[in-house]
Amino acid sequence: MTDDGRDIETEIETETTAGEAAVESEAEARWAVAIVGAGVIGRIHAEAVRRHPKLRVGAVVDPDAVARRQLAGQIAQAEQGAAEAPPAEFATLPEALAAGGIGLVAVCVPTGLHAAAVTAALAAGVHVLVEKPIDVSLPEARRLTALAEEAARRGVLCSVISQHRFDPASAAVAAAVKSGQMGRITSAVASVAWWRGQEYYDSAQWRGTWALDGGGALMNQGVHTVDLLAWLLGRPVEVFAHAAMLAHEGIEVEDVAVATVRFASGALAVLHATTAAYPGLSVRLQVHGTTGSAVLHDDQLEYFHVARHGAGATGGPYGGAEPDNQASRVVPASEVRGNVKAADTFVVGHLRQYEDVVEAIQTGRPPAVTMRDGLLAVALVRAVYVSSTLGRPVDINALLAGDHDDVAITVASGGEREPGA
């Protein structure tokens, strides 16, 4: 809404679509969100939506009647006394869209099912927030990005979940990079060292498949760290990588991936992702520049230091003139590594992105995370897989242009194990 109470959406000189009409309701009404996918991530989205004063869960969409009924029931119970009706239940998104009244679709199904949901929602003129990665296929991700950009010209928003960009620690590092406090960014080290037991992959047929998971440790578990890496260091231009499946059985994808990445700025990075690091450690991202360094550790700020807060004094040939950790000066105490994180941190992270999406819809600006951002993350992951398969560096621009769309990805497995392994 504008300061004088006018709705920005009504000023768009295009035919009002179903989704826009839902958003243009009375200021006091909450916009109805359709949660597509009633699994773990769908429940996180539902709780984030429920906490936003402008949103409500209007529909739960899932072919599994038990799952959608359970989630809809939980929401109805939590919302007892609310003016609106409890969430409607639908087996498919087209059914929910046909029923009308949906202002935003949250796509929370397995990655291989994203495309159909995003396509249907945008075709209906309904705003979309889709989980990352946007698709398992780079050509399909390109198509969805083009659809989203065409929809944006009609006033329909499409954003990609990258909730860690909104973490206070990540935001503080990004601000320091953008302002030049850290000088020229020279390098980064990103590691996702997690463990997933065999039972994790056995728990659902889609896990560990190219068709629905789109990849393994890097695409599924590491894609948010990939996104942060590109956000902080800029556009990647070349990747050289290895990927392997070493600790699990019955899956098609990698459980270990390592890569070196070169960026347009000249900066270099090391990328590591695994679900074979027992008992499961942490996510860590180090960013280094000529006048500062920062370390993000499990979404908190472990270390932050800039020379005289960006004045450029580096302490001589070996540095160290100002060795103190300045992390507590740039983020709240709860965001400094070692302090206890709230139990609902994951929900709050998603809520921050919903706040951005709502503001973008209200003001007509682009969302902070666009589909093109999501496309770049998928391209970087795909570059790792293609490089590992071909055994040579891969140019990101060529990849985005479709040069390697025909490469069938292979993942090394087995090998000789050390005694006792």
TrEMBL record:
Domain Gfo/Idh/MocA-like oxidoreductase N-terminal: 33-153
SUPFAM superfamilies registered for this protein in UniProt: Glyceraldehyde-3-phosphate dehydrogenase-like, C-terminal domain (SSF55347), NAD(P)-binding Rossmann-fold domains (SSF51735)
Protein name as it appears in the record: Gfo/Idh/MocA family oxidoreductase
Domain GFO/IDH/MocA-like oxidoreductase: residue ranges: 172-294
